[in-house]
Design a protein that fits this description.
single chain, transmembrane helix, membrane, DUF2339_TM, transmembrane, DUF2339 domain-containing protein
């Protein structure tokens, strides 16, 4: 009985192995047939079923056999098939494409030979070309089911011959007008789009669009006219946009963009009139922009797929090409609105970023690209539309907005760009805005001038961005690195305080300097009153700096204790150090006795007060910083 069970078990395993081998053979056979371009023959499978085992006798011990090791047969022909796939691709696909090109060239030579020997009239040649083109398309349709790639090449050749026939009819024989030829070219292009989608063959679409974009260059002799040329380009580009709904053929999108730019440039170089064509040209530019701005991400939004670097390149190329051409088109007539135009572009790309965020949230790279383009246009808007200190103010606002977006979306690049723009803003403030004040001007009022308000505004922005890192960073603590949050908030806080201290010091210094300038030049004769007045103003000028720094330090210390903010207290101590150095080194030797008394006593009282605060709250500071580290985290 045990021997029978063992035999049945072996038979069962043999049947299973036979089924597995038959399945592998079927797959290999189908693969070979697909490479050869013919359908695999149907194989009738017969179910192999082992005989059922009889039930074990009652009471008999059940024998449990360990499952034998099943060895998967090695596919020795797999390597040969892989090597043969390259051969099949070359023989079945590339030779097909080359053959089609040869047929098209041969047709062209045949037409020329027939022309030279007067075999066929001009109309007959065109009709013959159309018949051959349609016949090839019909033949490709007939072969489509059995020979996919072969039929694609045949259909593509038919489309190419149709284009050649129409070009010859209009350009060489003048059988039909250029308008009629353009209409037929559009129909052929639409037809080629439909065929490319049906055959899933980008080569057919490429042939269609190559022929379509060559039409204005081949058929039109002399200068291109605006309306027919640009309207024709719009129709072709709309065809590309429709195709993008079905297929993600990126190189066709880029080809259409480059071809449109080239043909537009040729038209502009030949026929553009800046006096009469501005508005109509801008209309066509806007239509081109809408098409290609959508084309760059249309497929990705509809099908919720991620964009590639190729897509992002087309996004940026479209944006800045449109802005550049529009700027040169409009600047002579609408110069005062060009900054607003840049702002409009920024708003459009910001809206695209929001749309992508809503429709395809996973494509963060596309979202950030749109937002980066929006920011670039907003940055350009400021110097184009505004001047003087308003440029600094505008850049500061944009830097804050960019940093907020970077924190909200957890984009390190956005945050770096925001802080970088803030750095440029501060540089512009010191290079252009600070030296632009004439203290001798009667209209100058310290603390009530453009320089002060601009610097104060930038300081507030710096505090705001530091607060974004400090508070928002903690709100998104699971997203933003705590080290980055603490480092950036501290750096920005220090930068804001330094800028504010410098601004207050410069304004205070210029307050007394303006009074000194108002006194006029030193009199030729000795004038004790003039000398006393000048000395008093200079002493007050020096003392005011010490007073501002000391008071500012006290405010920072108090805020540091109230908010438990270590950087505030550390910065205050550093500022106290600078103040002490100034009082003991500069004021001691440069001030009169009365001013020395005021300076030293005032500084001493302030230092004693601060020292008392540190003595009073020393234990809490040590406990917070060294103990559990809770300071600055509340």
């Amino acid at each position: 009985m045990n021997d029978d069970k063992e035999e049945r078990g072996k038979l069962t395993l043999i049947f299973e192995e036979l089924k597995a081998i038959r399945g592998e053979i079927t797959k290999l056979d189908a693969r070979v047939n697909s490479l050869e371009g013919r359908p695999a023959p149907e194989i009738k499978r017969e179910e192999l079923r082992p005989e059922p085992s009889p039930p074990p006798p009652p009471g008999g011990p059940e024998m449990k056999m360990p499952p034998p090791e099943i060895k998967t047969p090695k596919r020795k022909g797999a390597e040969k098939i892989e090597k043969g796939s390259l051969e099949a691709k070359i023989g079945g696909k590339w030779l097909n494409r080359i053959g089609v090109v040869a047929v098209v060239i041969g047709m062209a030579f045949f037409v020329k030979y027939a022309f030279d020997n007067d075999w066929i009239g001009e109309t007959g040649r065109v009709i013959l070309g159309i018949i051959v083109g349609l016949a090839l398309i019909g033949w490709g349709e007939f072969l489509k089911k059995k020979y996919k790639y072969y039929s694609q090449g045949v259909v593509g050749g038919g489309v190419a011959i149709l284009y050649v026939s129409i070009f010859a009819a209009a350009g060489y024989y003048s059988i039909i007008s250029q308008t009629g030829a353009s209409f037929l070219i559009v129909l052929i292009t639409i037809f080629s789009i439909m065929l490319s989608v049906r055959y899933d063959a980008s080569a057919i679409a490429a042939l269609g669009f190559i022929g379509g974009f060559l039409n204005p260059l081949i058929l039109h002799h002399g200068d291109l006219e605006q309306l027919p040329t640009l309207a024709y380009l719009v129709l072709l580009d709309l065809g590309i946009l429709v195709l993008a709904y079905f297929k993600n053929w990126k190189y066709l999108n880029f080809f259409a963009f480059v071809a449109t730019v080239i043909i537009f440039g040729i038209w502009a170089g030949q026929s553009y009139n800046p006096k009469t064509d501005v508005e109509s040209t801008q209309l066509f530019l806007t239509i081109f922009f809408l098409i290609f701005a959508s084309l760059a991400f249309f497929y990705n939004i509809v099908h919720r797929t991620k964009t590639t670097l190729f897509d992002l390149g087309l996004v940026l190329a479209t944006a800045f090409t449109f802005f550049g051409t529009s700027y040169f088109n409009l600047k002579e007539h609408y110069k005062e609105f060009m900054g607003l135009f840049a702002g409009f572009m920024g708003a459009v790309y910001f809206g695209m970023g929001l749309l992508t965020h809503w429709r395809n949230y996973g494509d963060r790279r596309l979202i950030l690209t749109f937002l980066s383009a929006a920011l670039t246009f907003l940055v350009l808007m400021i110097p184009i539309q505004l001047d003087k200190n308003w440029v600094t103010i505008g850049w500061a606002v944009e830097a804050a907005a960019l940093t907020w977006i970077g924190i909200r979306l957890n984009s390190t690049g956005m945050r770096i760009a925001g802080v970088g723009l803030l750095t440029f803003t501060i540089g512009r403030l010191f290079i252009f805005d600070f030296p632009g004040i004439d203290i001798g001007d009667p209209s100058f009022y310290p603390f009530l001038n453009d320089r002060f308000f601009t610097a104060l505004f930038v300081s507030i922005i710096l505090f705001f961005v530091a607060l974004l890192y400090y508070s928002k960073g903690r709100s998104y603590s699971s997203v933003i690195d705590p080290k980055e949050r603490k480092t950036m908030s501290t750096i920005l806080f220090i930068a804001a305080n330094v800028l504010l201290i410098v601004t207050l010091s410069v304004e205070s210094y210029d307050l007394f300097e303006s009074k000194i300038v108002a006194m006029g030049p030193w009199p030729a004769e000795h004038n004790p009153a003039y000398a006393d007045r000048l000395s008093a103003l200079q002493y007050a000028q020096m003392l005011s700096l010490s007073g501002i720094w000391a008071v500012y330090s006290i405010i920072l210390v108090i805020l540091g204790f109230i908010r438990k903010h270590t950087p505030s207290r550390i910065f205050a101590i550093a500022l106290f150090g600078i103040t002490i150095f100034k009082v003991f080194i500069i004021d001691l030797s440069g001030l009169e006795q009365v001013y020395r008394i005021v300076s030293f006593i005032g500084l001493g009282v302030i230092l004693l007060s601060v020292s008392f605060l540190y003595t009073r709250y020393k234990d809490k500071i040590i406990e917070a910083v060294v103990g559990d580290g809770t300071e600055d985290e509340e």
